[in-house]
Amino acid sequence: MVRYMHKQCESSGWMNRIECTDPSMLGVMIKLVDDQHSIHPPTLHPTVLEAMSLLDIAIAFTMSSEITSTLFRHMSPYQTEILVQPQGIKIPIVESMEDVIYLASTKKMRGASCIVRKERLVLVWSNSVENILPHGAELEKLLLETVSFALGILA
Fold first, then answer.
1. What is the pLDDT of residue 35?
2. Are 27 and 6 in contact (CB under 8 A)?
3. Could you tell me if 125 and 139 are in contact, meaning their C-beta atoms sit under 8 angstroms apart?
4. For 47-60, how does the pLDDT look when each residue is reduced to its tens digit (9 = 90+)?
5. What is the per-residue burial (b if ≥16 Cβ within 10 Å, else e) of 13-50?
6. Consecutive H or E run containing 61
7. Quick check: 58 and 30 in contact, CB under 8 A?
């Protein structure tokens, strides 16, 4: 199942290794019974795995795409969230995957995604394996709207 999800993320353009600072950060994790996890690729960076594990969710993946790359180029270095208008949806921005680990370990991580500045990726998660792909597609749409608005392009 985890390999299938990874392949779906790749075919959606969400695992673009060229747009990511460290391709070992790109992958999928599914929670199994007894706090075990299935990951793909097997070489998924330990920091990402720890962050995903601490979120205590059913599934998570890291997203890196042309859209996220454009978003990072246009973000302010002090920006702490992306506000998607007119929906009013806020997507938090954290400095690094280590910050995700800290926030998840202190139960301060909210929502179902966050933008990770240092690693130039978006961490996406869900409590439902079935909902992760539609959630990723909706998030990508929101990010595209944000980037289009910032660049003055009609989406």
1. 80
2. yes
3. no
4. 999 999 999 899 99
5. ebbbeebbebbebbbbbbbeeeeeeebbeeebbebbbb
6. strand 59-63
7. yes
The residue type found at 102 is: Y
Sign of dihedral through CA atoms 96, 101, 106, 111?
Answer: positive
**Domain coordinates of the chain in residue numbers?**
2-151
Q: CA distances (Å), 61 to each of 34, 110, 146, 152, 153, in order?
A: 20, 16, 21, 30, 28
Tell me which CATH code domain 2-151 carries.
3.40.225.10
Identify the pLDDT of residue 154: 46
Residue 155 has pLDDT above 60, yes or no: no
Place of tokens 């998607």: 84
Task: Enter the tokens of residue 78.
Answer: 């002090």
Report the residue count for the chain: 155
User: Computed from CA positions of residues 129, 131, 132, 134, in that sequence, does the dihedral angle turn out positive or negative?
Assistant: positive
**Which amino acid is it at 149?**
F
Q: What is the CA radius of gyration of the chain?
A: 15
